[in-house]
Amino acid sequence: MNLEDIAKLAEVSRSTVSRVVNNDPRVSDGVRTRVLRIVAETNYHPNAAARSLATRHNRIFGLLIPQAMNSIFGDPWFPHMIQGCMDGCRNADYSLMLLMESSTDHAAVNRLIERTVRARHLDGLIISSSLKDDVLSHRLARENFPSVVIGRDTDERFSFVDIDNRAAARIATEHLLSHGYRRLAVISGPSTMVTAEDRRLGFLDAVEQSGLDPSVAQSRFGNYQEREAFLQATDLLSSSTPPEAIFVTSDSMAWGVLHAARTLQRNIPNDVAVIGFDGIQQERNQREGLSSIRQPARRLGERAVEMLVDLVSNPGQSPVQEWLPIDLVLDSSCGCPALPRVYGDREFTTPYALPIASQVAAL
Amino acid sequence: MNLEDIAKLAEVSRSTVSRVVNNDPRVSDGVRTRVLRIVAETNYHPNAAARSLATRHNRIFGLLIPQAMNSIFGDPWFPHMIQGCMDGCRNADYSLMLLMESSTDHAAVNRLIERTVRARHLDGLIISSSLKDDVLSHRLARENFPSVVIGRDTDERFSFVDIDNRAAARIATEHLLSHGYRRLAVISGPSTMVTAEDRRLGFLDAVEQSGLDPSVAQSRFGNYQEREAFLQATDLLSSSTPPEAIFVTSDSMAWGVLHAARTLQRNIPNDVAVIGFDGIQQERNQREGLSSIRQPARRLGERAVEMLVDLVSNPGQSPVQEWLPIDLVLDSSCGCPALPRVYGDREFTTPYALPIASQVAAL
DNA sequence: TTGTACGCGTTATCAG
DNA sequence: CTGATAACGCGTACAA
I need a labelling partner for B121 at 20 to 30 A (CA). Which of A2, A35, A335, B178 fits? Predict the structure, then answer.
């Protein structure tokens, strides 16, 4: 059943049917309703390939999850972000293709470029989390292929949505300092990830600005997984001068820290305070009482798609960089009263330049 | 850059270039290498839409995650399953399109059918987890559209991969009984999910066969989320006759149970033993010592794609139903020695008919 | 408002 | 082994 068949049944030309199907106003109401009836009766739906061939686009976006994320794909952050992308696609009537390739390996990137850009398989690409030496984004920028990164990209020619990871980390750390903790530690993600490094730097910013001797602040690197953080925390807490507070750059890692503290019979927050990052604890049992930076994972995905839609409809527009607001969710794990309260009616839109006094004072 | 351009540069016809690109043997080596060189030099890649239009297929599979799963999409089972699908697609040179629609709502199903089957957007569909009143699978079967369900489908005309949920649950429960626990409880998923019900029935099978009074076995329904299970477990454990052992039909829920026990100062396994389901604990801190049925989530996804590849290449073949082997992973939470051991060199290929004596005896 | 004619880039058929 | 030529199904100037 194709355009031709419908045209015959409705006794009009193919063009007219095409116009009806594409909501072209230049068709009389009488003809339109007649054609529409036939379309409904025959359950006709235009062939996607033929349409793509003619229009040169196909309403498909790709979502690339770099293969380096393979091991942390299980982190609840991803499902949320993916759902956001799906929301955005549904709203704009796009389909979403899932891609998992390396974004740093040259051969893999070439394969990807061929199959998407050159073969015109995709109208645009969303890259979740860029890596330090991401060769993909440079290639895409050079090819002038519509793409949006979720997470700050180091390439200025690129569009991206992100939260202000560095400011968020600094705020969390300053909050710990406001409780009076002085021996601090951070457990961050791998230094190859831009976002992970930003968070670690934010932690260091706060320590430095507080006037403390930076040497009292210990840095540990995790891999965003609960188990590794458990081991790191066990090590930290077993030392002769254990930290009084630990800033952990993901909730999944923070759970590992909480577990380590339990295992070592340390009280939280009296022996050691903890603040996490992600704010997805509602998934878990809320009684864990984990304080955290809550980032809008789902909204990040949705917004990325919206930006991509913009990009493909206004080709040649200059890259857009956008920061989404976040919340500091305070709970018992950092020493706040157990009843969870939400701070953050203030939006963090300017990276690394946030007057956070109001945040801390609000405590 | 298209076929025509390459043909001119190589001084051959379009047909010949097409043959070279598609590895058709009917072309001389001299011409082939010459064309191949041009192709490489010009970085040519065939247009996907044009190819789809001509061949009437596009090497794209859809992965449908029914919208009812939205709230449990964060369960680590999904990322694993998705990765398996990606593996399978990569191996067979297919792309994977992510779909999240309702599979029970009639309007949504119609939209889906239109956009995939009728518009020929997809070559096949994988449905993760079927629901009790799944209208989608019936429609697909009727349209004769190549599809594979992950999880037993009630429609016999359908192909699916699954584990033997019922037998697995029975084995887990029998293992608890073998430890001497008599007051049992089960916390299962929503009864609208086929797999969740199968697991609950397997639990009941074991109770019944043991000759115990079924009334001592309590059934609770969770939603596959940690928090809900925490609440259910808190309730169970606070009663005057708390269960000695709880079978929980997902690990995420089991963690909620463990947490509830901790909060109520109950010792595991002395006060209450626990066995979970999924076997994804390696993601989490292993010291939680959770015994579990380990199912091959990733392999399920991969196998589903393999079956779908078979289905599209041999159209009209009769539906295939396949069960994948599972393991009973014993740890401290059920009362076994803390050192984790793996049982299950036996493959569970026949549903509901497993001689499990060897399993239990192996303890 | 409607219809005609052509192009989109490949694959497939049929001669040679 | 190679080359015309016809589908594949739709969008769209252009003409009427």
Answer: A35
CA A197 to chain centroid, in Å, comes to 16
Residues 258-317 on B with a CB inside 8 Å of A are 259, 262-263, 280, 282-288
Query: Which residues, listed in sequence order, are joined to residue A292 by a DSSP beta bridge?
Result: A276, A329
Residues 43-82 of B with CB under 7 A from strand D: 50, 53-54, 56
ω before A269 within 30° of 0 (cis)? Answer: yes
What lies within 8 Å, CB to CB, of B13 at 6+ separation is B7
Residue pair B97/A96 in contact by the 8 Å Cβ criterion: yes
Is the CB of B53 less than 8 angstroms away from the CB of A58?
Answer: no
pLDDT tens digits, one per residue of A278-295: 877 666 766 678 888 888
Question: How does DSSP classify residue A25?
Answer: S
Query: Can you tell me the distance from the alpha carbon of A184 to that of A217, in angstroms, rounded to the nearest whole number?
Result: 5
Give the CA-to-C1' distance from B3 to C1 in angstroms. Answer: 39
Q: Of A201, A171, A155, A174, whose CA–CA distance to A325 is shortest?
A: A171
The whole-angstrom separation of Cα A184 and Cα A273 is 9
Q: Give the ranges where B93-240 is alpha helix by DSSP (H).
A: 106-113, 135-143, 165-178, 194-209, 226-238
- Any chain B CB within 8 A of the CB of A91? no
Tell me the C-alpha distance between A32 and A16, whole Å.
9
Q: Burial code of B121-157, b = ≥16 C-beta within 10 A, e = fewer?
A: bbbbbbbbbbbeebbbbbbbbeeebbbbbbbbbeeee
A148 within 8 A of A307, measured Cβ to Cβ: yes
Position A9 pLDDT exceeds 50: yes
Alpha carbons within 13 angstroms on the beta-carbon side of residue A41 total 10
Q: Please write the tens of the pLDDT for every residue from A220-273.
A: 999 998 889 999 999 999 999 999 999 999 999 999 999 999 989 999 999 999
Q: Which tokens hold the place of B316?
A: 């009209």
